[in-house]
Write a structure and sequence with these properties.
15 strands; alpha/beta; seven-stranded mixed beta sheet; globular; 10 helices; oxidoreductase activity; about 325 residues; Quinone Oxidoreductase, Chain A, domain 1; Enoyl reductase (ER) domain-containing protein; Zinc_ADH-like; Rossmann fold; ADH-like_C
Amino acid sequence: MRNFIGLTERPSLDNIAVTQGPVPVPGPGEVLVRVRATSLNYHDYLVVAGFIPQPAGRIPMSDGAGEIAALDPGVKGWRVGDRVMGAFFPDWVDGPPTDANNAAISGETVDGFAADHVVVPAHSLSAMPAGWSFAEAATLPCAGLTAWRALRVEGRLEAGATVLLPGSGGLSVFMLQIAKAIGIRTVMISSSDDKLARLKELGADHGINYRSLPDWAPAVRELTGGRGVDLALDIGGQSTFAHSVAACRMGGHLLVVGSTSNGAPELPLRDVVMRHIRIGGMAVGSVAHLADLVRFVEAHAIRPVIDRDFPLAELGAAFRHQLSGAHMGKITVSL
């Protein structure tokens, strides 16, 4: 038998419960993974809280790490016991995003990793970074990969560039770690002076408390010699979008990598047009991108910052901890 969480017809943080069922059997081209850890992302919260409707029984959670327990005889390149990570987009192996390769989303349109055994396509798997724990590896496929693709694939930033990073959650901390390894200068915004101090300990060059300085874009420009940043990453949506635009340099780049805001932002059209700001959006990345990231974190000895680990039975409590905003880095769940 396997332990797993299946969403109810009306899911909420109050009715998340572990149940039991038969261990699935891998079919052609598939692998059975004994999941050891998952980690929380805001997208996962939207699913488990019912804001992204799913059929009853859907297994949530887009991140997963564990070891291969069984595999279809036709699968090549993997063997029982290999330590692996799943993928947010299990069918996006390489190349640009398409309607076809982005249709399957782990924990949303297909079952995710809130189960101690899952069957996934063999092509969706990546090897864990050498020496990492399962909990550490479970932080990489969504937050870590989003940070990597934003900075290197879409942002194309090199040493000496400047970047604006929002908050102190798992995504922002990964962005900071990757940026510092590349040699990118960072400006972090947060609502907490204590968190800004911790971010500076991790290598942040500058920090701005947006609660004490609500109009923070001029401060960003001042910290960059009046120029503005080369790339601004935005997750606040309505509350931060116009500020992020104003913080960009002439010809700069604003990349939206998610949103924790309920409202749609208003586009400051004149600033965007007259200052030649490029605005784009992106979600996570491909299996090939994740393999590139694994090589990078191994080469630069980067390890994730984990705030707290919960058991699967306390997944609802884990999300409440995430919503409190008290965490720094990633929140993980062990199975």
